[in-house]
Amino acid sequence: MNDGEQLQHDNDPLLTPGELRQIVDNLPSRMKHPHSDYEYSDASSFETEIEEFFNYCEIENDLKSYQQEYEKSGWWELNEEKQRRHIEQTIDRLEHSKRDERVSAAKQLLCIGLGCCYPKNSCRLQNCSEVAIANSRLMYACGALTAVFYAFNRGCKQHDVYK
Q: Which segments constitute the Far11/STRP N-terminal domain (predicted)?
């Protein structure tokens, strides 16, 4: 190859930088996929999916024992302000010095968030999911999401072998 042919080859690549950039930008891993628009072919209603999850999960028996605490407490009879205060006090217990208190608080928040704080067979499945959504919103407004995140983080740091 002489100097003229080499110069022409250097100026005439197979892909220009612009074409290469366009190819990279169109790679599937670089494209944004909105998950909210995805239609699951086997998805059932929210209530049915939750029910199926707990039927396959070992937590169902534990959840029943956690629920007993709320059957005694009368949670469903409290007005929203008293429920809010209860949630805030339970969140504060996530920082308790005793492990059992922290675990108990986490279990209580779980029951509240799942709408399991009503007496057995007191509400239909649809109502229970509405209770779960309303309770979860109330817990979020009380700062439960942040508090649980920090509690998990503290727990992980205590057991972190890579300190």
A: 35-160
Which long-range contacts does 151-159 make (Cβ < 8 Å, 24+ apart)?
151/94, 151/95, 151/102, 151/106
**What is the rounded end-to-end Cα distance, in angstroms, of the chain?**
60
**Cα 90 from Cα 4, distance rounded (Å):** 80
Instruction: Measure the CA–CA gap between 24 and 28, rounded to whole angstroms.
Output: 9
Sequence spans of domains, the chain = 72-158
For residue range 123-136, list pLDDT tens digits in order. Answer: 555 577 788 889 99
What are the pLDDT digits (tens) for 47-71? 777 777 766 656 666 777 777 666 6
Tokens 């366009």 belong to 22
Can you tell me the mean pLDDT for 88-99? 92
Q: Which pTM was predicted?
A: 0.61
Residue 121 backbone phi and psi in degrees, to 5: 60, 20
Q: Establish how many alpha carbons lie within 13 A of residue 129's alpha carbon, considering only the half-sphere containing its beta carbon.
A: 9
